[in-house]
Design goal:
The protein is of the alpha/beta class. The protein has helices at residues 18-25, 44-47, 53-59, 75-82, 94-102, 138-148, 190-199; strands spanning 30-34, 39-41, 66-69, 87-91, 107-109, 122-127, 149-159, 165-174, 183-188, 202-210, 213-220.
């Protein structure tokens, strides 16, 4: 990869504290607080529920074996299994992995920038629920995902619902104001995500919206032999 890989300790705020507590209880409120004080809500209650109508528009486009990157509590894994897909989720939160396993999903405690099972052999990768922000550099993340899927593989990603392209530092906070260490994050809309994808070797094949959420389907460029 051409850019710097995020340090492993940048995942630590997801491993304990307010996020873990919220995932275990299935309750919000939970936020990412930016350095400028603005709050980005984390929809824990939706993540802990079943796949909804907007999610299904993504799942119906999946091909072959599916890797859910940042799978959280596992709602997509369960729905994919019901649709007959071989699937695996990875996440840096032990609490999220535990809940995903209890729900019947297959999931491992892994970081996308570390060792990923069956690397280079996944037909589809998912980046849902703001996970294009992982690491704070969407270009670096997209380059990494291109290594994980098969040549010509599919990436289905959720973009911000507005036309933004931002990188910033955040802290995870509950509604009670608790916070942990800051870490880099990004927020990109469809236009910015498509632009980053082209630079990382992906082809934009489809864009759509559902229930106020925005999505994009990307096809990786086959690697030279």
């Amino acid at each position: 990869m051409s850019a710097t890989v995020p340090r492993s300790d940048e995942a630590s705020p997801w491993r304990a504290g307010p996020y873990s507590d919220a995932v275990r209880s299935g309750c919000s409120p939970l936020f990412l607080r930016r350095a400028d004080g603005r709050l980005l809500p984390l929809d824990v209650e939706r993540w802990c529920a079943g796949a909804d109508g907007a999610d299904m528009t993504v799942l119906q486009r999946c091909e072959e074996a599916v890797l859910d990157i940042g799978c959280g509590p596992g709602r997509m894994l369960v729905a994919l299994s019901q649709l007959g897909h071989s699937t695996l989720g990875i996440d840096v939160s032990p609490a999220a992995i535990a809940r995903a396993l209890r729900s019947g999903g297959r999931a491992l405690h892994r970081c996308v920038f570390g060792d990923v099972p069956n690397e280079g052999r996944w037909g589809t990768a998912l980046l849902m629920d703001g996970n294009v922000g992982i690491g704070g550099n969407p270009g670096t993340l997209l380059e990494r995902v291109a290594e994980i899927v098969v040549p010509g593989g599919l990436l289905l990603a959720e973009a911000a619902p507005t036309d933004v392209d931002e990188r910033f530092q955040v802290r995870i906070e509950s509604g009670y104001g608790e916070g942990g260490a800051s870490f880099p994050w990004a927020q990109v809309g469809i236009s910015a995500l498509a632009r980053e994808a082209r630079s990382a070797g992906w082809q934009d094949i489809e864009q759509w919206s559902s229930h106020g959420r925005s999505f994009i389907a990307l096809r990786s460029t086959p690697r030279a032999t």
